[in-house]
């Protein structure tokens, strides 16, 4: 009896010490914080709002273009308790959903989409500890959503869509803090910065006059577009220091050009977004003379790119496109790069799954295009 009593006291003291030190309990699917670990914390979101919540949370939702993607990057997928209906629809190239197909089995929390209002009733029904939101709301609307639902609302941002940058990195780190994945968030930010640095350094010593002119057409914008749809400050080109002819417009983001302008620019390399390639081939049949006047077509320098603009940018694919474009435009500077292997490395790190084969199946992958053949 004395031995049993001694054993009981020992176990009890161990449990008290463990709880006092903020120990953890194990459950299937990972480590669950004890009550002692959960604490109130204030975070300043990307709208400048100070939000108080108990961290780390266990149940999250993410609404608006790109919010869910950032949660998956931070390895918060298992904490997601509902997704927007638009996320459940077939959408080739939406990498985070390709890597996490089981998310589609979760309850719906509203229609979703860039031009919709959050559905307060649906959000409350899944009982999240936090609502991450991107793009859908301004400061006033974020406050209103929080007041109506009684759930902390934390706004995120991708920042300048030409370079992503500090707003994006802050958003990822905020998610990491809230879901208890600080180390993972820091690793994601470091990895993105490392790739950005590597891409830039490869061509930094090339004079602008020594660079070939390039153009990307058929860039998706709320749906497929033809060759007139392009992008100034196009991230894959910007990262590698390519000479994007559209940048001379002084604009930033999606640009619709007059087709005749493309003739005067006459780029050496022509890239086409796979999302709009079918429209380009149809246009070619109607007006082959226009396309045949372009030196890129004459010299067989037309290439396919995987679309990355899909409910805000798939950052993983944007970087994959940058390495492929670098390999084509600057072969000497990228001679050590296998774009297919590099793409899978990026997808694996950010999403836990190599996705290039699926991208190739659905969107053609990285390849030379032969218009009119």
Automatic annotation (TrEMBL):
Domain Fe/B12 periplasmic-binding: 59-333
Record Gene3D superfamilies: Nitrogenase molybdenum iron protein domain (3.40.50.1980)
Annotated keywords: Signal
Position of the signal peptide: 1-19
CDD domains per the UniProt record, alphabetical: HemV-2
Keyword Transcription: no
A Pfam family per the record: Peripla_BP_2
The family this protein is said to belong to: Belongs to the bacterial solute-binding protein 8 family.
PANTHER family linked: MOLYBDATE-BINDING PROTEIN MOLA (PTHR30535:SF34), VITAMIN B12-BINDING PROTEIN (PTHR30535)
Protein name in UniProt: ABC-type Fe3+-hydroxamate transport system, periplasmic component
